[in-house]
Design goal:
single chain, mainly alpha, 0% strand
Length: 306
Amino acid sequence: MTRYVARRLLQVPVPLLLISIVVFALVRITGDPAVLYLGQDATPEQIRTLQQQLGLDQPIWIQYVRYVRQAAQGDMGRSLRYRRPALAVVVERLPFTALLATTGLLLAALAGVVIGVVSTRYRGTWGDVFLVGLSVTGQAMPNFWLGVVLVLFFAVRLQWLPTSGAGEWRHLVLPSVTLASFIMPHMMLLTRTALLEVMQDQYVTVARAKGLPERRVLYRHALRNALNPVVAYVGLQFGNLMGGSVITEIIFAWPGVGQLTIQSIFNRDAPVVVAAVIILALIIVLCNLAADIANALVDPRIRIQA
């Protein structure tokens, strides 16, 4: 297990390096950050001064090497709008995004696994057909549309929950349900498919031949081995939610990293945009690593074959 974890850790810097190259190149392709921030009405002296402050007057490869060196030390530049370190601005918003992603993922995992198990146990019945059809419908439903509908019904019409913002647990309900509604159908179908496949294995047939109740065969023998793809999916989705909840954060005015990134793009605050993308990419890579390690702990065959 130690060798497997060591090999996976050695693979972490590669995607981060590639992402840093892509982000750095995209920021430079869109134009000179100094000109983008100051606008077309800025004088050459103002542009030249800001370029010197940001180190943009040096060759591009020197800028990248300096950027990587500073980023490795936790220095990702200063925000042009907030006049503070860009990393500190992003880190302030991380807890809000992490809270939203964690709550939505827990709701989706709990509901998806439970419904998947129920659908598997009563497979072939009308209840199974209804649950599968409901999951397919949930996959096709845009989460931004669902978010607007939830706001109109529960916040505007019934006035049970606030429309936007953050502060207390009531602010978390609608955005977390919106996120969970998109992931839960995938979780349900994945659990159902994995269980149906495991139920055909020989050890399940032996357990049934011993006269064990179907409930015990399902929960005690089949479910644990069927959770491998579910665990991997949960790990991947947490990273994706950390970086992909932008629309939900905008709809509900949730003060997370996604909303900050969009605002920084419109404000031409390149250091904050780059810092947010790098931090979110690091979280996604670490979540994938955690999912792989969790799978290896559940299924020893993974670390043996790796």
